[in-house]
Amino acid sequence: MMGNRGVLHDDRRRIVRATQVKRWIACALEFRGRHRTVMTPRSYTELFFLDEATAFAAGHRPCAECRNADYKRFRALWGASFGAVASVDAIDEVLHGERLNGRRKRTSREEISTLPDGTYIIMDGAAVVVWGNELAAWTESGYARRFPRLKRGEVEVLTPPSIVAVFRAGYRPEVHPSLLR
After folding, report:
1. Helices (H), 15-85
2. In whole angstroms, what is the distance from residue 61 CA to residue 63 CA?
3. Rounded to whole angstroms, how far apart are CA atoms 21 and 19?
4. CA distance 174 to 179
5. Which end of the chain is more exposed for a tag (fewer CB within 10 A), N or C?
6. Are 130 and 166 in contact (CB under 8 A)?
7. How many CA atoms lie within 13 A of 105 on its CB side?
């Protein structure tokens, strides 16, 4: 999964900002045979995610072009969650407000027993994903340590609240194969 937040690098391929735009999208790695040179000057900076659940936790939504079916499903479930199908600009505005607190990642707190699969939380200082009756620790190469999901308790949630609502409405994010073993 590849993410896009605008042009984050300079002509010498140094990261100079965390974001440039409010439209954070998650794209397919392959689409219609297109090929890109990573960090092309004056073009968007490619961000790579382990899977869709990770991209959602960062605050990205499906791309309307290369992931059109996922985008339409996400937007319809957004409407089911909030009472009306919103424009993509309205969705991006809400997500933008939920992603950052200044320059820091914005989090929320929720009861763990109510969290749907694919939601990322902080457990013992590490990012873990909720999946069924388990929690699995994120690593850059896949999900590692697994442990039983807590039955009750408030936890710090990394996935933005609106995306958690879309998960509750039925969107089940794609996950890395290491989670499905």
Report:
1. 52-58, 68-82
2. 7
3. 6
4. 10
5. C
6. no
7. 16
Name the token pair of 7.
Answer: 């042009």
Residues 58 and 159: their CA atoms lie apart, in Å, by: 7
d(CA 70, CA 66) in angstroms, rounded, equals: 9
C-beta neighbour count of 147 within 10 angstroms: 12
> How far is the C-alpha of 1 from the C-alpha of 167, rounded, in Å?
18
Beta-ladder partners of 2: 27, 48
The number of residues in the chain equals 181
Cα torsion 60, 63, 68, 71 to 10°: value is 30
Greatest distance between any 2 Cα atoms in the chain: 50
CA angle 63, 106, 136 (to 5 degrees): 75
Q: What are phi and psi of 111, to 5 degrees?
A: -75, 125
Give the tokens for residue 175.
């996950």
- For the chain of 181 residues, list the mean pLDDT of each consecutive stretch of 10: 92 91 92 83 91 97 96 96 88 94 92 97 96 96 94 97 98 96 81
